[in-house]
Amino acid sequence: MRSSEISRKTKETDIEIKLNIDGTGKNSIDTGIGFFNHMLEGFSKHGFMDLDVKIKGDLEVDGHHTVEDCGIALGSAIKEAVGDKAGIRRYGYFVLPMDEVLVVCAVDLCGRPYLNFDYEFKAPMIGDLDTELIHEFFYAVSYSAAMNLHIKVLDGGNGHHVAEAMFKAFGKALDMATGYDTRVDGVLSTKGAL
After folding, report:
1. I need a surface site. Which of 74, 163, 174, 188 has the fewest CB within 10 A?
2. Is residue 48 left, alpha or beta, with left meaning phi > 0 and alpha meaning psi from -120 to 50?
3. Count of CB atoms situated within 10 Å of the CB of 114
4. What is the 8-class DSSP label of residue 48?
């Protein structure tokens, strides 16, 4: 099993994450932000990754530190769990429909961080989550995991549907990228290293 445990403690947040990328989608999520919990549950379930997240954050300020630091910790957990990347597909993508919404997510576990996030939410909040923080989360994940991450909304609509489609599509794309392919000898790179 490819798994990791990450602890991250600052004056703003105290985070414990356990990740098993070879799981079945079991999860236990407590970030203190109900809608964010829901998004991480969708990522875990649809990406078939077991995920435990416990965060105590300075929510009396706002949700920014909690969401961003969760992204940093989750990205670190992904990077550690994937390990040397030998035998994996490296690339993954998924086009996810959710009612009127259509979102595409593509991942490259190349060791070079980059985020291309192509959407601006119309509503400032979805439940108790500031929608600006969705970009911040994916940015933090992409950089701490050292992955290329592209998220594009092909057809928008209800903000809840858009956000949920993003997290589920990310889970599906990451599941594909971390999957093994028997044709891959070592790492999938003409350079011989990622």
Report:
1. 188
2. left
3. 14
4. T
